[in-house]
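User: I'm curious whether this sequence folds into something compact or stays loose and floppy. Could you predict its structure so I can see for myself?
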Amino acid sequence: MKSKLKAKRFFPLVFALLFFFAVLSPDLIFHSGESKAQAAPAGGALHTTLRLIADVKEVVPGSTFMLGVELTMQPGWHTYYKESGDAGMPTSIEWVLPTGYKHGELLWQKPRKFDDGGIVTYGFADKTVIAIKVTAPDAIPDGVDQKMVAKVKWLECKELCIPGSGETSLTLPKGKKGATPQSGDKDAFSGSGFSGKVSDLSAESHGVGDGATNFEKGETASGSILDRNLTPADSQGTLPFYAYFALAILGGLILNFMPCVLPVIAIKIISLMEQVNDDPGRVRLQGLIFASGILFSFLILGGVVLAARAAGQTVGWGFQMQYPPFVIAMATIIMIFSLSLFGLFYVTVSPGQQQIDKLASKEGLTGTFFKGVLATVLSTPCTAPALGPAVGFAFSQPPIVILGIFEAVGFGMALPYLLLTINPDWLRFIPKPGVWMEKFKESMGFVLLATVVWLLSVVGAQVGSSAVESVGFFLTGVAFAVWVTARFTDLSSTGTRKAVVWSISGLIVAVCLCVFILSRPDLMGAPAAETNAPKTAVTESGITWLPFTIEELDKNIAANKTVLLDFTADWCLTCKVNERTVLDSAPVVEQLRALNVVTMKADWTRRDATISKLLQKFKRSGVPLYVVFPAGRGSSPIVLPEVITPSLLVDKLKEAGPSKS
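Assistant: Here's the prediction. I'll summarize afterward.
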């Protein structure tokens, strides 16, 4: 009779790898910097010119004066008011003033109404001025001219719409304190609309009246969908507070059946099979330890989210998969687990060694806890049904709610194992262990190796195909180091022999790490410009998916196009399943063509602050997410659930209607 024992000595190596990658890549959690604004199409500057004007010719310390951007449009072209109506985008201005200056909110002139086939918008033709009131500081250095700068973004439309951007400046000399400033372009500020009140455009058909702005106080009326007040049609709707916790538990339960988690679940099923004849008390303990590993991991994830949010960063569900160092660490750990299923971590011992059996029991609890941790980490690339609304709701709530929702997800995920182990009699429905189980266990090793291949493809998508070769050589070195440790030490080895073998194995890993990983900054989280550049993708069905940029999305919405926006990532298996079975299916492709829908992919494989912000506007924290922007109703998008069907998507596309231009 033979007894087999997992080698506890490999767990320090596993945790050391995780710690090493986390320390060497601090932006794994706190990635600094936002995405840089991309330049607007060059054509945008051809139809609108900018000029910065003031109602004074000099700046008197402590005085208040008017500063404005004068926009002059070519004949037939127009720009948009702060409440643009059914389409269009408001003009936005970023002010760069000298130190000590203060300014108020944007002041607008009364807009015109444009009616294009029932699509009503409000804006300006020929010329308009968007102004602010500026207060100069009491002390201005002598001999220093005061330079004012306005960075402007706008949308100009005629038969087509073009987003534009530009910068204009004005330099004013310092005036004598207490003197009356010399008059400047006062006539430009004499038109209506500069009283600080905002027209309530929905009150009267001609767009005149007084009312409150649709924008929250302090929000800049910008030219992007990111800054609009969206009213998405969501199948979830508004739910009671407690309902989000119920959704979190349900979503966690469903995570067990998502493709990301299946490799670890297979390992846990093997463990349950081995426990069929165990003492009921030990079976219950195993269940509690596995559940505690899951709950502990979700608590840590919640804490990381809170820390990142406190640092001013935007993160979402599965954020850690956006960083190559973490993906490499996960590939390493899963490969080590696959080697254990092939028997590399087991040593054969003779029967009757009670101390060894006790040691095996102790190591089994450690392994059980770590399996719970691994299951949690692998679950985050998948967003299960019901999970998206719950976690999306949590990300906008106070810290205690965020932690509560994350723990509810963990409880839902751990629930099946708790029920099975708390009621050991139910284990009798699990097949009895036997020779077949060894073959099944080894076959699961190949499932884990397939997971490693998937993770390597994620690294390739993030950094480039050449990175896959480097990571592959590193994994080979780690596997060799593990083999050296397993083959040249056993329970009878002396402490000196173990120290020597472990030192050799550690040296092998360190050399491979330096040669294949640390030598490549892109693998340690540095940007890879050549792979981050968005590329147009054409599927086998012939549908062209445009790469997402906020400018491209804004342009198509303003042009009255119906847009299908697919939020996806290469590490999201749910996304890939939906893409192959739904988005590329014949009924969906036919409907997309019939309605002339613009299809666009927002790729979240690597961190993208703009995509993160847009996800938050839809109260979502991760991918997949599918949004349809109906033509002429861009501020009322249709939000689909995480798991979609061809019939559901076709129905929503019909509801949105065809592109109108």
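Summary: Residues 564 and 599 are 5 Å apart (CA to CA). The longest strand covers residues 146-157.
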